[in-house]
Design goal:
With 593 residues, the protein is of the alpha/beta class. It folds into three domains: 100 residues, Phosphohistidine domain (Glucose Oxidase, domain 1, 3-Layer(bba) Sandwich), CATH 3.50.30; 108 residues, PtsI, HPr-binding domain (Enzyme I, Chain A, domain 2), CATH 1.10.274; 320 residues, TIM Barrel. Helices cover 47% and strands 13% of the residues. It is built from 24 helices and 16 strands. Helix 11 links the parallel strand 9 and strand 10. The protein is globular and about 85 Å long.
Length: 593
């Protein structure tokens, strides 16, 4: 067995070792393979068998979901079964095999193309969105044409998941702390939501490997080094031992660093700072607190939707927010309203694919267009605020009018609750994310309409530099230290401080020790990040004087490139407070996190 090393982007630190489980992607063929006349009946039989297997698969998934989350959860698969049994679909497939004398793969590809075209031409949004369902069903049939039956099954044992790409909704369903040891994908970048979820679950992950799905076979032994962004396929025994030692070292450092959780969050010259946690799941609170989080700076509520098949009710929301608020109490919990769109689609609503999703109906734009959903969420957050530690955060605001609209709805929801005699925190703070460059440029004015701001550097950098945050081909341009980016961030922090309002950085930039020092120097005091990075950042900021950070931050404004800035900051830190970096290399992930 050939041993192989592949480089990618380490997005979730740690080392995983185990057998590869390949999640295969279906690519419809563009080749019309002709068969002799006498093979036609066999081919029709092959197609029918694949349809039967698909029916069995769908019924099994539906029944499983019904048991796990109730009848609502299985609706999508109920619909898929109906599509599969559509008589015109079946007749169309058989006709192509019979008339064109072509293989069933060709018939399915042709049907897929025809339905795509048909659905795209429809004017009714709802029906247009059914396209992805039909395509899903056809893909299942396509896979089931394989006779060797090594079809994808629900994984039962621990594995390293290898796939071309993993959409956030798939990641939310497929990644399991118990079974997924590591993740290795062809696609994806540092700040993609799949990366964020892998980090939250503590699953080592390397993305952007380009063609790992072609280099790895099912059951191959794979090492995923999420710290250094490397994947080793079928390692030699010596290499395996080397990584086993690295794994143990990593876990040891992790335990050591966690001890900082009990120490005070203040710099050498006694300036207080506040590390907080970005989380996606309520069950993460406890772990976040044990890592030293002084509250939840960002709860990404969209994962409530992404983890289930049906729309959550007000009670579902309330239960989750209530649990968050209780578990973190008296520390603050910042709940971000639905940030859907972009790469995070909502399976329950079959949101229409947009030509430019990152610039489309995302986040607050979506909430303002779907007010019923928005009101349900606001009501639940308000009801969970009785402990007075809940704050609301609105994502992707671009202009002041959006805040005014949100506030109108918010006030109306509050009136409704008062009428019903429901208790909530009358002074619940409402903040906005600064992640669209226009909002950053207008921060002083935005701040007149909001109680606090949270800078989402992941998107802010993406939009300011015009670099897709999850596209590995342009990762080299995604630079938190781009001089334009640091100036913009500085101006927002200063505007908030002038206005006497709270400012948080909740993008991944807050988790990087070098940039955290710069942010501290700009005047930032609240750093919200994936909990696994809190010990590292806390240790770093405890090892520096705020005065030094301020001097460094002032100097970099004169520099011309990200490289110059990064070099300057790193050298200054090494010269004055080298302990900042003495956190053990093994806990770092590559720059850009
Ligand atoms: C951000 O954009 O920086 C952010 C924190 O939000 P998300 O990563 O969920 O888009
Ligand atoms: Mg964002």
């Amino acid at each position: 067995m050939e041993s192989l090393r592949l480089r990618g982007i380490g997005v979730s630190p740690g080392i995983a070792m185990g057998e590869a489980l390949l999640s295969r992607r279906v690519v419809f063929t563009s080749r019309k393979e002709i068969i002799p006349d006498e093979r036609v009946p066999d081919e029709l039989e092959r197609l029918r068998r694949a349809l039967d297997r698909t029916r069995e698969d769908l019924a099994r998934i539906r029944n499983g979901l019904r048991e796990k989350i109730g009848p609502d959860g299985s609706l999508i698969f109920e619909a898929h079964l109906l599509i599969l049994d559509d008589s015109s679909l079946l007749a169309g497939l058989e006709e192509v095999v019979r008339e064109d004398k072509a293989r069933a793969e060709w018939a399915l590809s042709k049907a897929n193309a025809r339905y795509e075209k048909l659905f795209e031409s429809l004017t009714d949004d709802y029906f247009r969105q059914r396209k992805s369902d039909v395509s899903d069903v056809l893909k299942r049939v396509y896979k089931n044409l394989e006779t060797n039956r090594d079809r994808e099954k629900e994984p039962q044992k621990q594995h390293v998941l290898v796939a071309h790409e993993l959409l956030p909704s798939e990641a939310a369903l497929r990644l399991s702390k118990a079974l997924t040891l590591g993740v290795a994908l062809d696609m994806g970048g540092q700040t993609s939501h799949t990366a964020i979820l892998a980090r939250s679950l503590g699953i080592p992950a390397v993305l952007g490997l380009r063609d790992i799905t072609r280099q790895v076979g099912e059951g191959d032994f794979v090492i995923v080094d999420g710290t250094d962004g490397e994947v080793i396929v079928n390692p030699l025994p010596a290499v395996r031992r080397e990584f086993q030692a690295k794994k143990e070292k990593y876990e040891h450092y992790g335990r050591e660093l966690r001890k900082t959780a009990k120490l005070k969050s203040e710099t050498l010259d006694r300036v207080r700072f506040v590390p907080q946690a970005n989380i996606e799941l309520p069950e993460e609170v406890e772990q976040a607190l044990s890592m030293g989080a002084e509250g939840v700076g960002l709860f990404r509520s969209e994962f409530i939707y992404l983890r289930r098949e049906s729309l959550p009710s007000e009670e579902d929301h309330f239960e989750i927010y209530g649990r968050l608020a209780r578990e973190a109490h008296p520390r603050p919990v910042t709940i971000r309203t639905l940030d859907i769109g972009g790469e995070k689609s909502l399976p329950q609503l079959n949101i229409e694919k947009e030509p430019n999703p990152a610039l489309g109906l995302r986040a607050v734009r979506f909430s303002l267009r779907n007010r019923d959903l928005f009101r349900i969420q606001l009501r639940a957050i308000l009801r969970a605020s009785t402990g007075r530690n809940v704050r609301i955060l609105v994502p992707m605001v671009t202009e002041v009018d959006e805040i005014l609209e949100v506030k109108d709805i918010f006030e109306d929801v509050k009136r409704e609750l008062r009428r019903k005699g429901e208790a909530f925190d009358e002074n619940i703070p409402l903040g906005i994310m600064i992640e669209v460059p226009a909002a950053a440029a207008l921060a002083d004015i935005m701040l007149t309409e909001t109680d606090f701001v949270s800078i989402g550097t992941n998107d802010l950098i993406q939009y300011y530099l015009a670099v897709d945050r999850s596209n590995e081909f342009v990762t080299y341009l995604y630079k938190p230290f781009h001089p334009a980016v640091v100036r913009l961030i500085k101006s927002v922090i200063e505007a908030a401080r002038r206005a006497g309002k709270d400012v948080i950085v909740c993008g991944e930039m807050a988790a990087d020790t070098t940039s955290a020092v710069v942010l501290l120097g700009f005047g930032l005091r609240t750093f919200s990040m994936n909990p696994i990075f809190i010990p590292r950042v806390k240790k770093a900021l405890r090892s520096i004087e705020c005065r030094t950070a301020e001097k460094i931050a002032a100097e970099i404004l004169k520099l011309r490139s990200a490289r110059e800035i990064e070099e300057y900051v790193t050298e200054e830190i090494l010269l004055r407070h080298p302990q900042v970096y003495l956190t053990g290399h093994v806990l770092e992930v590559k720059p850009g996190n």
